[in-house]
Amino acid sequence: MPLATIGDETNFDEVKAAVFASLGLQAVNSGLYDGVWADSAGRKTIAVHSPINGAKLADVAVAGEGDYERLIGNARDAYSAWSRVPAPKRGEVVRAIGDKLREYVDSLGLLVSLEVGKTPTEGKGEVQEMIDIGDFAVGLSRQLYGVTIASERPEHRLYEQWHPYGVVGVITAFNFPCAVWSWNALIASVIGNVVIWKPSPNAALTAIATTKIVNRVLDEMGLPPLFLLAVDEGRTIGEKLSNDKRIPLLSFTGSIRTGRRVAQAVAARLGRSLLELGGNNAAIVTAAADPEIALRGVAFGALATAGQRCTTTRRLILHESIYDRFIAKLTRVYETVKVGNPLEPGVLVGPLINQYAVMAYRQAIQRAVDEGGRVLAGNRVLTLPGLEGGHYVAPALVEGMPDFEIVCEETFAPILYVLKYRELDEAIAIHNRVDQGLSSAIFSTDLREVERFLSLRGSDCGLANVNTGTAGAEIGGAFGGEKETGGGRESGSDSWKVYARRQTVTINYGESLPLAQGVRFEV
Ligand code: NAD
């Protein structure tokens, strides 16, 4: 049943009860859907705790190696039926999924909040993103165009067509627990693929609830299982997918360290991987910036989702002439921003996902200090009354140098390194000196500065923003990054082509056999 309204959205237990009732979650949930939900009895379970207060949300019975063959077999069977359905009809299925998701924006959004600690507006925004990409995929189902090419030979026709790959694997990270799945799955499915999802164990309940909603639609329409799910303890199913030739395309979202392993395994079998890995995103604020827009853009980019977005602003490159003024204002924002229970109104920064993330936050700041950095704000682990089991930190602002080792790494926590520059070319060099290449921003009202940033000697990232922050992309554009971010593109524009194999077709409708390039071969 969809969630009507919760009496008090800030009451953890009440929210949990209403969300679980709406989404059909229980104390123990099956994490394996291979056409039917596997029986949880006798299976290994993992406990899911909320980062908000450490409370146990539920147990999840996980998939293991022994489940894999059946999973793949069922997915392949489903593919053979689904790939015969015309693409616009597939679009109708995705439209029904989108309609069903619309009924669950509140409950699924709040589950995201409970499970990974996002504010409800961000949690619901994530479900909205699924709905938006669904709409995009529906339109796409009638626009899977291939080009026609003029043949150099008489009475020949040359064109391209796009076929599905078959079974596509999708491994996702904890921090976008359902939106990233939908970017991949809803687009891959209108092309005719079947998707096996291996979510992060840190966001298992959101994956289970999403799969339940989606499969209810498929069941009602009498369709085979197109969206399968295998929650594991961490790496078991992900490694199987990486090494399996029957998975022609594996989409991986996560850290660079894990992504490198996955990419190497997929490459070793000459498969294709779609990599959406870590970022180390910077915003340049020039002397010509609108100060208010720059301040808000940097604050949102650095603080939203408690610094746990792949597109989080991690480095601020400030012009020396505005440095002191800007830092004074930003420090005030850091000192006053409300950190705490994300379910409470006014809280903008929720918890980190677990104690390891808190440890990474502490270690990173210590390393920055050891390298000569100066803490301007934050550097405190917070124990909040009533939320003692939660994982809260004060967002940190650290003055540093571009070549500090720690500044060149991604720490998945709210730490913003502040760096100073004099000339724009120097700022761009600082910007581009890291190994990651996801998102970038410049705040400036000077056309020349902006165009230099956007020129081929400017930002080397997959995403470039002007007078808006590094975080918060729209689904209409292709999303992804360069260098160690992995080069993948997902979501809008022509990213759909990643999920399809291109076939160039040559048809000779004449009565002779002319060869290309004038080659003669008389037999
Ligand atoms: P992670 O790398 O720890 O885990 C990602 C996924 O990989 C999880 O599902 C995990 O269970 C799985 N996994 C672990 N070991 C594996 C193995 N050996 N083989 C296959 N799969 C394995 O990442 P995380 O902590 O969940 O997420 C945070 C990271 O994800 C950050 O680096 C962030 O920047 C990145 N991220 C990138 C994007 C993007 O679009 N570029 C989006 C979201 C998150």
Based on the structure given, which CATH architecture of the largest domain is correct? 3-Layer(aba) Sandwich
Report strand %.
Answer: 15-25%
Structural class: alpha/beta
Total number of domains: 2
Helix content: 25-40%
CATH topology title of the largest domain = Aldehyde Dehydrogenase, Chain A, domain 1
What is the distance, rounded to the nearest whole angstrom, between the alpha carbons of the first and last residues? 72 Å
Q: Measured on Cα atoms, how large is the radius of gyration?
A: 24 Å
Spatial sequence of strands, sheet with the most strands = 14-17-18-13-12-20-21
The CATH superfamily of the largest domain appears as Aldehyde Dehydrogenase, Chain A, domain 1
CATH class of the largest domain: Alpha Beta
Summarize the helices and strands and which ones pair or pack.
Layout: H1 12-23, E1 28-30, E2 32-33, E3 45-49, E4 56-61, H2 68-82, H3 87-103, H4 105-116, H5 120-140, E5 148-149, E6 156-164, E7 167-171, H6 179-191, E8 194-198, H7 204-220, E9 227-230, H8 236-243, E10 249-253, H9 256-268, E11 272-276, E12 281-285, H10 291-303, E13 313-319, H11 323-336, H12 355-370, E14 374-377, E15 381-382, E16 392-393, E17 396-399, E18 415-421, H13 424-432, E19 436-437, E20 439-443, H14 447-454, E21 463-466, E22 478-479, E23 482-483, E24 490-491, E25 500-508
Parallel strand pairs: 1-4, 7-8, 7-10, 8-9, 10-11, 12-13, 12-20, 13-18, 17-18, 20-21
Antiparallel strand pairs: 2-9, 3-4, 5-6, 6-25, 14-17, 15-16, 19-23, 22-24
Helix pairs in contact: 1-4, 3-5, 3-6, 3-7, 4-5, 4-7, 5-6, 8-9
Bound molecules: nicotinamide-adenine-dinucleotide.
